[in-house]
Amino acid sequence: MADPKSLLEPANPPSYYTVMVIEQHPALHSLSVEDKLQLSEELCLDALLDAQRNPALREQVQQRLQEYRDDPDSGISWDDLKGKIFSRQRVA
User: Fold this and answer.
1) How far is residue 92's CA from residue 76's CA, in Å, rounded to a whole number?
2) pLDDT at residue 28 above 60?
3) Quick check: pTM over 0.70?
4) CA distance 49 to 53
5) Is 33 within 8 Å of 92 (Cβ atoms)?
6) What ranges do the domains of the chain cover?
7) Rounded-to-integer distance, Cα 74 and Cα 69, Å
8) What is the mean pLDDT of residues 17-28?
9) How high does pLDDT run on average in the chain?
10) What secondary structure, in 3-state letters, does 4-40 show?
11) Residue pair 68/74 in contact by the 8 Å Cβ criterion
12) Sequence-separated (6 or more) residues with CB below 8 Å from residue 37
């Protein structure tokens, strides 16, 4: 499976005027951290399935995967990402 970080980084970083998806679905704010992480895993898997059916998306996923393979130190593991998210929740 591809490194989740490579799937999460936007190809074109959002501008200050971009509305985040979570803002379009306010109920997502009430999810627990565990549920948010589960949802993100499910969305990544769903995106991979979409990539199999969508050549443009498949190309983007392959490009990000190749970027990660070219420079694996530029990414972090899924476990490290979850640790960072959980540590933010404990501090907040």
Assistant:
1) 22
2) yes
3) no
4) 7
5) no
6) 32-92
7) 10
8) 75
9) 76
10) HHHHHCCCCCCCCCCCCHHHHCHHHHHCCHHHHHHHH
11) yes
12) 82, 85
